[in-house]
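Action item from last week, closing it out:
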Amino acid sequence: MSLPAPDPNATVVVTGASSGIGAELARELSRRGHHVTLVARRRERLEELAKELGEADVRAADLARADGRAELLGALRQTGRFVAGLCNNAGFGSFGRLWELDADTERQMVALNVVALHELTLEVLPRMVERGTGAILNVGSVAGAQPIPGNATYAATKAFVNSLSEALHSELQGTDVSCTVVMPGPVRTEFVDAADAQDIEGRAPGFTWSTAQDVARNAVDGMARGKRVVVPGAYAKAANTLGRLSPRTVLLPVVRAAYRRPAPKQ
C-alpha cells in the first residue's frame, strides 16, 4: 500500500500544478524519479515547470468545468502511460458571508474542490485496483475539521475531501492501493491572494504558517508509505485536533470573530 516505484511506462498526475503546493508536489515527485503529468489552467506556467523538471507532460485544463474534466480524462486514456499516482491538489477558497459572495464563484469552488477530485478518483481508481498498485494523494485541510463561518464553502469542501479520503483508505485495505490525505494548516502560497483575503492572512502569527515545500515533502513521504493522514507541523496538528473535538457552541463564535471581514469603506 504505497506509491509504486518509478516506472518508465507510468506517470503521476498532479492537479493545480502551476503554483504553490501543486508545483512543489511535482518537484518532489520528480526528484524521486517519477514522470509527472502537470495539470492546471495556466499553460505557460506548466510549460515552465515541465522544462525545469524534464520528465513531465503538460495538460492545460479548467477542472471546474465539465468539459475541462472530460478533456483531461480523455487525454489520460490516450497518453500511453498508466497512472501510478494521482495528486488531487487543485482548489481555491473564498472569505466572507455566503450570501454576500459571488454565487458563480462559490459553485465553481465546489466543482473544483469536490467534483473534479471525485471524478478523477473514480476514473483512475478501478484501474489501480485491477493492477494491484497505485496511490492517491488528496490535499485536504485542517479547515475541514470544523465549520468555519466566513469561509463556509471552502471548509465544507475540505470536510468532503478529508472524509472521503479516510474512508477510501480503509476500503482499499488488502488491494495494495492507497489513499492518503494531507491536511495542512495555513500555507504561504498564492491561495490568499486569489481569495482576496490579505487582511485575514495578517491576523495569523508567523509560527502557524508552513511552506509549500515542507507540505509537499511530508505529503509525498506519506503517499510513498501509504499513510492514511498526514498533518504537517505542530500547529496544524493542534488545530486539527481542536477543530474536531471542541464543542461547536464554543468553537463557532471564536472562528466567526477570527474570520470576520471589515465592513467596506463608504
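Closing note: The longest strand covers residues 82-88.
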